[in-house]
Design goal:
binds uridine-diphosphate-2(N-acetylglucosaminyl) butyric acid, alpha+beta, 26 strands, 4-stranded mixed sheet, 462 residues, single chain, 16 helices, 31% helix, globular
């Protein structure tokens, strides 16, 4: 298995372009199951999760072809030609929970679907009850057989519009909202989703569906109204940039006391992260912003901004609570915690979306961090310096947090099991190296004196 060896202490500097969003691309790709015409997605990131989704879609009769644009970004054209297999098998679903987002498209278009029930996950319990509740409200019959969800549309073959409440104990569901939105797009009548997730990835899925002929209003607000249509057609769509990748690199600049310029940065959907970082003494400047562009600039501009990140000499502590969008994203909690480890004073981090998402705490402690966890809250007492150590990545964002800590730490940090990281960050070590980091990818069997990290690959996080 691959590991990263990082010799810390180098300031990052330079320029980086943010890739297309992983968490938008996955449901966008699944939407291609809803038409036989080609759906072209521009800026799909080259990640392990995307490869898994391509494999799953191919099994479901949706093949793809990949080309590259002038900037080297991937353009994926998906075309569904064969509707005969609607079974998302355990083999693939267990490697990627986001496979559940084929449920709505399959059920709506084919009238039936069989999707393996996603199991446990390293970041905590992740039920799919809200997805199923949504499909049932649209008239689907749902049963469970041999660990598979079997969903069937009513005898007419078509789902029917309904009013659906999608709020759960930890807030609305992001993929559940996209799933129900897809299913309702082809239903008979009007669907109103109440307590819908407001995440930008949901808006992106609605934008693609509308470009395919759907009639969706209100995406990005807690109430989404969908007028069902009989058919969808092909479309050409640009994937939004990855807000979590952008936030991670902002924190990488800050933790190394460096200066980075990020192109294609979706600053418009990072407001809570920017707020916390600025309180800490990190400066995030949108380049080219003038009073006039701030007043007149379109949201589109602020989804593809160029920002410069630098910081004060000392970082201040902050309190942060993860929340559904537009609150502070759970997917940046681990990375922010790494940064707080080197702030001057006590910070408080509370996780409300995945209350067990703290696998990075023990590993950061191995690097000298002073962390005290009680339930879903961690008190971080800043230390002057982290120290390098061998650490184990356990899920995607925890891995990113350990890489950030390694970049700042004194000495050498070895991050084992970076396959988790490859699920969400495109060649992170190559980007970091180009920005001045001393980091290399190695095979962990080449590492002297480390326990073998190969046993028992943990389940996915995203
Ligand atoms: N939940 C339920 N019932 C459901 C669905 C969710 O109780 O049927 C709970 C979850 O257990 C959690 C909360 O509701 O406590 C929110 O879960 P949500 O359904 O919104 O998560 P998701 O859609 O499965 C996406 C991202 C995650 C991200 C969450 C929250 C993708 C592929 N994944 O997951 O991303 O953390 O939204 O923002 O879009 C990551 O990229 O590292 C990652 C884990």
């Amino acid at each position: 298995m691959d590991a990263f060896v990082i010799r810390g202490g180098r300031k990052l500097s330079g320029r980086l372009t943010i890739n297309g969003s992983k968490n938008a691309s996955l449901p966008l790709m699944a939407a291609a199951l809803m038409t036989h015409q080609p759906v072209t997605l521009r800026g799909v990131p080259r990640l392990a999760d995307i490869a898994n989704m391509r494999r799953l879609l191919a099994e479901l009769g949706c093949s793809d072809s990949e080309t590259t644009d002038a900037d080297g970004r991937s353009i994926l054209t998906l075309r569904t030609a064969d509707d005969s297999n609607s079974h998302a098998r355990y083999d693939i679903v267990r490697t990627m929970r986001a496979s559940i987002c084929v449920l709505g498209p399959l059920l709506a278009r084919r009238g039936h679907a069989r999707v393996s029930m996603p199991g446990g996950c390293s970041i905590g319990d992740r039920p799919v009850d809200l997805h199923l509740r949504g499909m049932e409200a649209l008239g689907a019959d749902i049963t469970l057989e041999s660990g598979d969800i079997i969903a069937r549309a009513p005898a007419t073959g078509r789902l029917r519009g309904a009013r659906i409440f999608l709020g759960g104990p930890f807030g609305p569901t992001v993929l559940g909202t996209s799933n129900v939105m897809c299913a309702a797009s082809l239903a008979d009548g009007v669907t109103i989703i109440e307590s819908a997730a407001c995440e930008p990835e949901v808006v992106d899925v609605a934008n693609l569906l509308n470009a395919m002929g759907a009639r969706i209003r209100g995406a990005g607000t807690p109430r989404i109204v969908i007028e069902g249509v009989k058919e969808l057609h092909g479309a050409d769509h640009e994937v939004i940039p990855d807000r979590i990748e952008a936030g991670t690199y902002m924190m990488a600049a800050a933790i190394t006391n460096g200066r980075l310029v990020l192109d294609n940065c979706p600053i418009d959907c990072l407001l809570a992260a920017v707020d916390r970082l600025e309180h800490m003494g990190v400066h995030i400047k949108v380049l080219g912003d003038t009073a006039a562009t701030i007043a007149n600039g379109s949201v589109k501009d602020r989804m593809h901004a160029t920002v410069e990140v630098s910081r004060d000499r000392t970082l201040r502590p902050v309190q942060v609570t993860t929340q559904p969008h537009p609150g502070f994203p759970t997917d940046l909690q681990a990375q922010l915690m790494a940064l707080l480890c080197v702030a001057q004073g006590n910070s408080v981090v509370t996780e409300t979306i995945y209350t067990q998402r703290f696998l990075h705490v023990a590993e950061l402690s191995r690097m000298g961090a002073q962390l005290f966890r009680q339930g879903s809250t961690v008190v971080v007492s800043g230390v002057p310096e982290l120290v390098g150590a061998p650490v184990m990545a356990s899920d995607l964002r925890a891995s990113a947090s350990l890489v950030l800590a390694g970049l700042a730490a004194k000495g050498t940090t070895t991050v084992l099991r970076v396959y988790h990281l490859d699920r969400g960050y495109e060649k992170m070590e190559v980007s970091l190296k180009a920005l001045g980091a001393d980091i290399e990818r190695v095979d962990d069997r080449e590492l002297p004196g480390l326990p073998l990290a190969t046993a028992g690959a943990a389940s996915d996080a995203a």
